[in-house]
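Memo to structure team: turn this sequence into structure tokens by end of day. - J.P.
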Amino acid sequence: MLLIQIIELITLTWASVLLLRFFLQRGGLSVSHPLAQLSMTLTDWIARPARKIIRPVKGWDTALPAAAFVVLLLVQMALIVVRLALGATFQPAQVPYAVMNSILYLTQAAAYALIACLIIQMVLSFADPYNPLMNTVCNVLQPFTRPFRFLRVGRIDFSGSLIFIALWLYTGVGVPYLRYLLRVWLF
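Reply from structure team:
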């Protein structure tokens, strides 16, 4: 069971990096930036072949989230095989559970990528507000923080804090509860 949790954690972390790359590209980060270089190094092995199959849609590099979903789904299917090899019995509901669980993992990875953007924004606002990464992160987060701009007090903007709390609650409470409901519903 511990091995399965480690595999899921590694896969979720990798999917978060892939989606962080997706968000930062959309925000306009230069490919020469070290963070872009790191994310490209970690994810190019799947991003390049995925781009040959899935074309961008309206400027969005849709191959990146699609590749993340495919890898998450393949890992979920592989975990079914591992459980069967360990003596579990096959239940037909395992396949739709794996698909829906992969969707939940994808949304969780996106939430973690956005949390990373919020943390980067917070650190840069104090350390180096004129860093080129700051503009990119603001571009990524603007659609999420715009409805909460009324939370600005002077130079301090609390909209990011509200988004952070919402994302943290989603990843810590919402996803486990949805996974529980999914398991109850299907099994």
